[in-house]
Amino acid sequence: MRTDLCDRLGTEFPIFAFSHCRDVVAAVSRAGGFGVLGAVTLTPEQLATDLAWIDEQVGDKPYGVDVVIPQNDAGAQDDDPEALRQKLLKEIPEEHFRFADQILREHGVPELPEGDFHAGLFTRSTSTTARLHVAEALKHPNVKLIANALGAPPKDLLDEIHAAGRLVVGLCGSVQHAVRHAAAGVDVIVAQGAEGGGHTGYVGSVVLWPQVVQAVAPIPVLAAGGIGHGSQIAAALSVGAEGVWTGTLWLATEESEMTSAQRRALVAADSRDAVITRSTTGKRNRLLKSAWTEAWEDPEAPDPLGLPYQDLVSGEAVTRLQRYPEAAPEVHITPAGQVTGQIKQIRRAADVVVELAEQYVGAGERLAKLNERLGPDSDASR
Ligand SMILES: Cc1cc2nc3c(=O)[nH]c(=O)nc-3n(C[C@H](O)[C@H](O)[C@H](O)COP(=O)(O)O)c2cc1C
Which atom of ligand 1 is nearest to the CA of 18? Predict the structure, then answer.
């Protein structure tokens, strides 16, 4: 399964593993895959610590960093992240904070101790923070690519990343977005089908992948959304993708930072339990159904705000639920895709990489057998 992109990036398998957990990133890169650390939940200082730790773990293996820069956040920029946060907070109706808090209070989730740092205390999903993330990432030579969750970064940032000799990766959920990212100068495009975890579009993977491959050729495409088995990697490579970009799979690993409640929910979940909600970031996001997502569906609930406002609304809840996971296991905020229905146990990340490669070989053997059955004289073999 070694593709040209593997050679460009110095990785053995074209299996890209997105994770917010540094342990997963390091374990996957060490095992021959390509770990990508999601920076959006980290302050720039925390990112610096995590990248230094990953550098120590991976030796000469490559890895990547993923940031979140909206296509247009002109109204939400400031050189000073704290000044920006204060400005944004003033624009958020009190009702939204009250509603988020009420969900947790009704389920008996304790408040955070006074002065405790939480995810709502910095402005995630803004170019202000993402620029600091990119500046930090470029200090680390093993960071071979910078991905932007929301497509092409602004031109000056794209040029800065290229000047540092790294690849720029843009995620997309539609052919139109892919074409736009290609025109903006992105080196690799991740085509994420609607079944994927996190921010996601409307078109399913098997329909989206070949269209994007065709539309942006010769730019390499990574297929995302619903990969949980090596046979799905074979399907992705067969339509011309140069690799797969995976997320949900790594939540169910020993190395992931999921709480015990989230792990149980992931293993128990059916594919239909991975629902679309705007309750965490304001954009269409696929999460495991929980009392949190259900509450925001209530007709009496306030309409979720846009990005980055809703991120600030949900920020404290994210930290509270991580801090007190057993207080109310029915409430959790867990981005996950439909592939959760394929996940039946918690595994070591390195074992998952090896198993995917073995399953891929198995899929190839099955297809080879079918081809043999065609025989030299059959119409279909000509
Ligand atoms: C828990 C979780 C958090 C995610 N957060 C981000 C993110 O911050 N940035 C990003 O580019 N993609 C994010 N994604 C999407 C992944 O990068 C990836 O495209 C997606 O998980 C692929 O679909 P899959 O979940 O079916 O494997 C997230 C996915 C999950 C499951």
Answer: 17
Instruction: Give the pair of three-digit tokens for residue 334.
Output: 């867990």
190 CA: nearest ligand 1 atom: 19
Measuring CA to CA, how many Å separate 19 from each of 25, 197, 257?
6, 11, 9
233 and 373 co-located in one domain: yes
Ligand 1 atom closest to residue 339's alpha carbon, by position in its atom list: 26
- Verify that 207 and 59 share a domain, yes or no: yes
227 and 303: one domain?
no
| Rounded distance between C-alpha atoms, residue 47 and residue 22, angstroms | 10
Q: What is the pTM (predicted TM-score) of this model?
A: 0.95
pLDDT at 72 (0 to 100): 74
> Which residue, judged by its Cα, is nearest atom 12 of ligand 1?
149
**Same domain assignment for residues 332 and 267:** yes
Do 119 and 4 share a structural domain? no
User: Which of 197, 361, 314, 200 lies closest to 265, judged by CA?
Assistant: 197
Helix (H, G, I), strand (E, B), or coil: what is residue 35? strand
What DSSP string describes 277-319?
Answer: E-TTTSS-EEEE--HHHHHHHSTTSPPP--TTHHHHHHHHHHH
* Amino acid present at 173: G
CB of 109 closer than 8 Å to CB of 331: yes
Tokens of 55: 């550098």
The tens digit of pLDDT for each residue in 309-368 reads 999 999 999 999 999 999 999 999 999 999 999 999 999 999 999 999 999 999 999 999
Q: What is the DSSP letter of 197?
A: S
Domain that holds residue 19: 1-70+125-257+348-382
**E runs forming strands in 102-250:** 143-148, 167-172, 188-192, 198-199, 221-224, 243-246
Residue 202 class from Cβ within 10 Å (0-12 exposed, 13-18 middle, 19+ buried)? exposed
Query: Which spans in 11-62 are helix H?
Result: 22-30, 44-58
The verdict on 154 and 137 lying in the same domain is yes
Cβ(63)–Cβ(57) below 8 Å: no
The pocket around ligand 1, CB under 6 angstroms, is made up of: 18, 38, 40, 66, 68, 147, 149, 171, 192, 195-198, 224-227, 245-249, 251, 335-337, 339
Q: Give the count of domains, the chain.
A: 2
